[in-house]
Design goal:
alpha/beta, TIM Barrel, eight-stranded parallel barrel, 8 strands
Length: 301
């Protein structure tokens, strides 16, 4: 499997009582398909996997496959503290015939690089599916380094990495030393740099509510190889990226989706919703972003 294009880590809508809203979840998936993203990830941080029970995670993955069918690649997250739990999510992904799995580092446990590699390879054996690694040391507490990669490159299933360290030197090392592992942007305000270093995909939470604008940046940089155009689009994105990184990330993504008419509900504790002034600020940023990107791409009316 080749990871190319915009991969959206889908949100998980909730009812007023905090239960998963399955009908609204189907609507979210249909919206993303209609918006022409290139793949969908279920069980990512944006989907609040950490606040779900094991049963909820497996049911969401199953529903996603039922809705999406073969229309888009479906990637299932396997994140968990215990390797045994990640293995169960990997097995579930195999059973529903998902296209790939997302494999990160177990949070909180702080494994060594060798231990982390054993974790990844154990999950790999359980699924036998293409793997996108997920390096996010700010959340997981450890980073995937040379010893880790020396061990995991033995698996032909490991085909891509969502690199979310924020360290551009890490991007350089991956591009130079591991060309067999495709780079995927996992640090949004570095998307332009990732594409310049050969990344052909971008896992971006914001594509839940402005998918076409994310696709526009991908097409400018990867398809058209027009980095002048890409820089202009990226510049239009920066106020949104600054807003999202200022806190309340998942809440902001859900508000953005609600502005598009999708039913999202709130977020599960310990997270709390945006204040009204924050919602207004986000709406203003999105309005300006859409206008500016439309002017760059020539789609402004």
């Amino acid at each position: 499997m080749k990871f190319e294009g915009i991969y959206t880590p889908a949100i998980t809508p909730l009812t007023a009582s905090g239960e998963i809203d399955k009908a609204a979840f189907s609507d979210v998936l249909e919206y993303l398909i209609e918006s022409k993203v290139h793949g969908i990830i279920i069980g990512g941080s944006t989907g609040e996997y950490y606040a779900h029970t094991a049963q909820e995670r497996i049911e969401l993955a199953t529903q996603a496959k039922d809705v999406i069918g073969a229309r888009l690649p479906l990637v299932i997250g396997t994140g968990a503290i215990r390797t045994e739990d990640s293995v169960e999510y990997a097995k579930a992904a195999r059973e529903i015939k998902a296209d790939a799995i997302l494999v990160g580092s177990p949070p909180y446990a702080l494994p060594t690089e060798k231990e982390n590699a054993i974790h990844a390879l154990t999950v790999d054996r359980a699924a036998g599916l293409p793997i996108m690694l997920y390096n996010y040391p700010a959340r997981m507490g450890v980073s995937m380094g040379p010893e880790y990669f020396a061990a995991v490159v033995e698996s032909k299933n490991i085909v891509a990495i969502k690199e979310s360290s924020g360290d551009m030197a890490q991007v350089h090392r991956l591009a130079r030393e591991y060309p067999n592992i495709s780079l995927s942007c996992g640090w949004d305000d570095q998307a332009l740099e990732f594409f310049a270093w050969g990344a052909r995909s971008w896992v971006c939470a914001g594509s839940n509510f402005i998918p076409r604008e994310h696709v526009a940046l991908y097409e400018a940089c990867v398809v058209e190889k027009d980095f002048d155009k890409g820089r202009k689009i990226m510049s239009a994105f920066m106020p949104l990226m600054d807003f999202l990184e200022s806190g309340k990330f998942v809440q902001s993504i859900k508000v953005g989706c609600a502005l598009n008419g999708l039913r999202t509900g709130g977020v599960r504790s310990p997270l709390q919703p945006l204040y009204d002034h924050e919602k207004q600020a986000l709406q203003d940023i999105i309005t300006t972003l859409k206008r500016d990107v439309a002017q760059v791409t020539g789609s402004a009316k």
